[in-house]
């Protein structure tokens, strides 16, 4: 810009104006453009055993009729059949065996009736 | 009845830097979801439950929010939990998600055995 065309403005003033305009233009350009974000460092896939504390994996999904619901749920989420009941019954059986003055005769064979050998029958209760 | 204290063991796992024993791992991994066509939200599975929470789950379909209820097994020292909610895409279906494995027999067996076990325990006191 020629200083002569604008008699009241000095060259330095015009230079300053030009810089300001350029700065504004740059500012407006950056506003209207998108700049790529600096990429985050990639996370390493978690493989350690500590990962077992994170969100549990997706469950197995079963479609089940109402009539079969109880048996299936017990089969998948119930205590291991013979272990729990047999253990507790055996512990009492052992206590009984220790004493001969015990009024009830408790041979171990009698506990066979109470162990879970026919789980299907139980679901009808 | 069952000697294994599963909740206690899981707490100890935190002290062992997250390393779980095989049994603890089995408990954590045991998650099953069951989908059943039912009018009732609560289906009888042979165990007793206590509700401990409820949440509105955001749904992309109608209705906007679906209720999810949280239950835990009432048996002392049993860690099993379940969640109940209706499917968003098919409202007539109830989805029950179980986590964990019980460490005690189901309710019917407990009800049958408990008086018997108490009786035996009582009588065994006289033998010592």
Automatic annotation (TrEMBL), chain A:
GO BP terms in the entry: cellular response to hypoxia
Region (Disordered): 1-58
Recorded superkingdom: Eukaryota
Comp. bias regions, Basic residues: 33-43
Pfam families the UniProt entry points to: VQ (PF05678)
PANTHER family: EXPRESSED PROTEIN, VQ MOTIF-CONTAINING PROTEIN 29
Compositionally biased residues, Polar residues: 1-32
Domain VQ, residue spans: 56-82
Protein name (Swiss-Prot/TrEMBL): VQ domain-containing protein
